[in-house]
Specification:
With 136 residues, the chain is an all-alpha fold. It has 5 helices and no strands.
Length: 136
């Protein structure tokens, strides 16, 4: 489990470093735009997915993808309203937001002996049992 946390942390650092490096280095025609788009959407999605550990993989993928679009849109809108928009500044701002989003996910570890998980295990709730939704 510790190896997986190190791998996830390393991937997050590489994505953030790639985003900042791409913003700071001179652009290479034909290479910069696709890589910038992939990093600008992939980095927030990766950071948000770390906070959504309780969702299944498909739901985590959808929510993290939508969240990545929202993060990029919010950063762009705030920068436009403040009249400080630039593509490089936008990438750096997205990287800063991703660092803030990803920090709690890296600092938190799953404790299987936590009282919350023990109470869930004791109640024996089944994932397929949705009768609770219809109780009044």
């Amino acid at each position: 489990m510790a190896g997986r946390r190190v791998l996830v942390g390393a991937v997050g650092v590489v994505l953030l470093a790639g985003l900042v490096t791409l913003a700071l280095l001179p652009s290479v025609p034909g290479f910069t735009r696709p890589v910038a788009a992939a990093l600008a959407l992939g980095t927030p999605a990766f950071c948000l997915a770390g906070l959504l550990a309780r969702l299944d993989r498909a739901a985590r993928l959808v929510v993290a993808g939508i969240g990545a679009v929202v993060v990029n849109g919010a950063v762009a809108e705030v920068m436009l309203v403040c009249s400080v928009w630039s593509p490089r500044g936008g990438l750096i701002a997205v990287a800063a937001v991703c660092a803030l989003i990803g920090a709690p996910a890296l600092g938190r570890h799953r404790n299987d002996n936590s009282p919350e998980l023990r109470s869930l295990a004791e109640t024996g709730l089944d994932d397929d049992d949705e009768s609770w939704a219809f109780d009044r």
